[in-house]
Amino acid sequence: MAIKSSKTAKKRARPVAARRPRADAQRNRERILEVAKEAFTRSGVNVSLDDVAKQAGVGAGTLYRHFPTRDALLEAVYRSEVAKLAAAQHEFSKAMAPVEALRAWMLLFVDYIAAKQIIAPALNAMVGGPSKLFQATGVLVKEAIAALVKQAVESGELRPETEPLDLLRALVGVSNVPMGGDWKESARRLVEILIAGSRAD
Predict the structure, then answer these.
(1) Which of 53, 68, 83 is the last residue of a domain?
(2) Does residue 91 sit in the same domain as residue 179?
(3) Residues 6 or more apart whose Cβ sits within 8 Å of residue 64
């Protein structure tokens, strides 16, 4: 009987496998990031985090559990935006013709610029600076547009001399102009001009 009891005890003592993050916890995190991005872009980085939690439909404790500080939330929003850009390049390439994929990605990049305008100054104020963050995320952005331009050139729709970084610089250059209420509309028009100007004859 003693041996049987010992075996039973060992079975009970086996460690339980680590659980994956719950689906609702992941949804909460993604919702917080989306609401925070909109709030930062609309009202600046000093927006109330309690208000962000409320608009995201979660308690303040849930927000702080995912993002213990404002800086952590700012950095997470920034990384999330870049990750979306990188993922969108693959999605658009599969679903659209090369030039249409490039156009769609550049329009998404306009949204990224809007978020970066608000978030970057706060990241610059972080202890130690965000240079490593910008370097790492910048590489992802450059690789994404380079792949899209390459496909469009190989399809014969864009001129062979089209430089991916020229397209990025043009859009980023517009972002240096003080933002007005119609800034996004102007940037979207610039996307069309850049695409048209890069078309193969």
Answers:
(1) 68
(2) yes
(3) 49
Residues 77/33, Cβ–Cβ less than 8 Å: yes
pLDDT band at 111 (very low <50, low <70, confident <90, very high): confident
> What is the arithmetic mean of pLDDT over 35-60?
91
Q: Count up the domains in the chain and report the number.
A: 2
- Of the candidates 27, 24, 30, 73, the residue with the CA atom closest to the CA atom of residue 50: 73
- What pTM was estimated for this model as a whole? 0.76
Q: Check if the beta carbon of residue 71 is closer than 8 Å to that of residue 111.
A: no
Amino acid code (one letter) for 14: R
Tell me the pLDDT tens digit for each residue of 170-183: 888 776 665 555 77
pLDDT at 45: 83
| Helices and strands per DSSP (H, E), number in the chain | 9, 0
DSSP conformation class of 19? P
Q: And the tokens for 200?
A: 């193969």
